[in-house]
Amino acid sequence: MSLYDITVKDRTGADVSLSEYKGKVLLIVNTATGCGFTPQYEGLQKLYDTYQDKGFEILDFPCNQFAGQAPGTIEEIHSFCTLNYGTTFPRFAKIDVNGKNASPLFVYLKKQQKGPLGSTIKWNFTKFLIDREGNVVGRYAPADTPESFEKDVAALL
Known about the structure:
By secondary structure, the chain is α+β, with helices and mostly antiparallel strands.
């Protein structure tokens, strides 16, 4: 199985095959709107603005598993992010990243790049960097700001 075999739901509930992102550098992030790391949306958008035209995409997956920090509907979350941080990158349906209901995408990502807790996501704003061939080449902790790994993104482009 590869990353491109996985299908996720967009924020309207429609299926999206990750094969649509073949050939692009991806940053996949589990996010929350009520988290201490929420201001990273600003840095993520800046990264997106800088590199989108070179084949870079950020895929945003809200997750309410950590202290209920992503409350509300996906449309409320989307409105919050666009109004407060001006985000324009794709946002998908809310998901679980750990446990028996974990999204197959995050099961796959965690298998490819283990973190300090093994194959468990520690908190919101864990980030996975994927190269143009679909390989998971980086995993960044919630406290790692987009600015701290921008050079890794640029190197893949």
